[in-house]
Description:
With 351 residues, the chain is α+β, with helices and mostly antiparallel strands. Among the domains are: 54 residues; 187 residues, Muramoyl-pentapeptide Carboxypeptidase, domain 2 (2-Layer Sandwich). The strands form four sheets. Strands 7-8-10-9 form a four-stranded antiparallel β-sheet. The protein has a two-stranded antiparallel ribbon with strand order 1-2. Strands 3-4 form a two-stranded parallel ribbon. Helix 4 packs across helix 5 and helix 7 crosses helix 8. The longest helix is centred in the first third of the chain and has 55 residues. The radius of gyration is 38 Å and the shape is elongated. The protein starts with a helix and ends with a helix. About 16% of the residues have low confidence. It holds the Pfam family VanY. Keywords: Membrane, Transmembrane, Transmembrane helix.
Amino acid sequence: MAKKNKLQKFLSSKYLYRRLVIILIMIILLIFIFSLIKNTINSNQEIDGQLIESTEMSSNDSALIETTHPITNEQNSIDETQSGEADAGTTETTIEVGSAESTSSESTRQQEASMDFSKIPYYIEKNEQRYNAYLNSHLSKTAEEIVLAVNMNHDFDFYTNIIPVTEPSVLNVICNKYYQLSSNFTPENLVNVTNGYFVNDGKEYKLSQNALDAFIKMSDEAKKEELTIKIISAYRTYAYQERLYNKYKANNGQAAADRFSARPGHSEHETGLAIDINDVSQSFENTREFVWLQDHAHQYGFILRYPEGKESTTGYMYEPWHYRYLGVELATKVYESGLTYDEYYAKFLLK
Length: 351
């Protein structure tokens, strides 16, 4: 009877319930902790497996891309003295792993492979193979850009793939780092520049008659607005250009010399149609005379030959003083096109 009373007293004790609640809570916590540990272990195993699989896939994809399809991009900022648009550098490319990206890449390559250059107005059939070769290393370019670049010979470095000028006396003759005049060429109708129209530095200047006549008209018109426009450099012989270039190369190195001086046979001054005006320095662009020439030179048949920001196209640094005579009609067309003469020639004059 005493044991029964003790049991009843124990069961009716308020402390019993507290102890049972505490025990129950501890059991629940233990179960939760055990479950959490188990899930964490399983999750880590799954992540490790995915990482291994992903690493293997990435390695395989990278090896495939490297060996079958190197991606190149034309350099946005290249040294204009050493190479044309043909120069290209390898660009870093991030490839996302996934079937959608692979399908898209394959589709793009198929479109590129079937690019129809013949639809471009300035397409030249004999250049078809060069267009396709240039496309392979310049995948981001349009068909128009590719045809223009190849027509300008920019699929070759400057001063490579030299083309002899066959008609050096025509008014629209092109002379640049790809087209070379003969060492024995002398322009027709060369005349001495009239006194008062050149900088009086003790030298004698010559120019083709038609270019000189146009310059005199332009200078006289500028004079009405109290502007002074005079010739500071005109026709040069092949031998003179050779000596000049070699001097610059000896003093500055070939890379620097090629930025501002043409190699013999490649200077527009040898055509008798090119002039330098007033001051052979960048500061000339800050003068009223330069501003006037920008608006009026084409009206007399002259164009700014080496504009600012076109070094990679022309091969020469910006020369605000260098002008080329093309005749009023052609000069106006080039001016209105906004193109350099190299670009205009490749689009509209090259056959």
